[in-house]
Amino acid sequence: MEVVIVPDARAGGELVAEAMAQLLRRKPDAVLGMATGSTPLPVYEALADKVRSGAVDASRARIAQLDEYVGLPAGHPESYREVLRRQVVEPLGLGMDSFLGPDGAAEDVQAEADAYEKALAEAGGVDLQLVGIGTDGHIAFNEPCSSLSSRTRIKVLTEQTRADNARFFDGDIAQVPHQVLTQGVGTILDARHVVLMATGESKAEALAATVEGPVAAICPASALQLHRHATIVADEAAASKLKLADYFRYAYANKPSWQSI
């Protein structure tokens, strides 16, 4: 795994946004897998700045959704479709016809999950998938002990994850749905490049388990150790428990200048 330690979230956002921009210059119709939450916001802001300045053309890009709550009505401000519309699709000047994502309000939720897997395959797969990490090591909504070969499916959230996400629902955990649709770990591993971003001391233990621990279902993010092109971008606080932090700093500082993350 490639580990890049950055000074702060803003520096990490710029680094990942530039990797996305370079991808779009090589492949204008690339499929970008986007996560939600507070961690990726610096990426989306930096990428939108690049589009507005003319540094990159994103007009043919396609945006793929990582996960979605089950049961929120269409248009709910905290549905991830709506979040990505506000934070990614519109700032990049795209329309929702560029968007790939499951409907968490569908009558047959598992059929919707299967249809999303098919849609991703028909789009040619995800070129770059951005993910965050939970304090318990989950990626997307693949909670601990998820199958490392899982596909898009329904999952039940842990109380810890619901508590972590309550801040988006006026601090009221009762408003946070119990079920979600999520890309599986195996689905995420199908992406050509996976970038995991981690910021803050609260993610330090999970990140250390992901990078330096065994590959184990108790820490679903550890499956990224098996990926052919996985990049970890972490700020100093999130990297504070990495035993090999100094090596990772040295290795990245000595990469050939032409290599992108």
From TrEMBL:
Protein name in UniProt: Glucosamine-6-phosphate deaminase
Pfam family membership, one: Glucosamine_iso
Keyword Magnesium belongs to the record: no
GO MF terms, alphabetically ordered: glucosamine-6-phosphate deaminase activity
EC number(s) per entry: 3.5.99.6
Gene designation: nagB
Pathway as given in its UniProt record: Amino-sugar metabolism; N-acetylneuraminate degradation; D-fructose 6-phosphate from N-acetylneuraminate: step 5/5
Reaction(s) catalysed by this chain's protein: alpha-D-glucosamine 6-phosphate + H2O = beta-D-fructose 6-phosphate + NH4(+)
Stated role: Catalyzes the reversible isomerization-deamination of glucosamine 6-phosphate (GlcN6P) to form fructose 6-phosphate (Fru6P) and ammonium ion.
NCBIfam families on file: nagB, PRK00443.1-4
Keyword Hydrolase attached: yes
Domain Glucosamine/galactosamine-6-phosphate isomerase, first and last residues per copy: 10-229
Gene3D superfamilies given in the database record: 3.40.50.1360
Similarity annotation: Belongs to the glucosamine/galactosamine-6-phosphate isomerase family. NagB subfamily.
Entry keyword set: Carbohydrate metabolism, Hydrolase
Annotated active site: D67 (proton acceptor), D136 (for ring-opening step), H138 (proton acceptor), E143 (for ring-opening step)
Record organism: Streptomyces kebangsaanensis
InterPro entries hit by this protein: Glc/Gal-6P_isomerase, Glucosamine6P_isomerase, Glucosamine6P_isomerase_CS, NagB/RpiA_transferase-like
Top-rank taxon: Bacteria
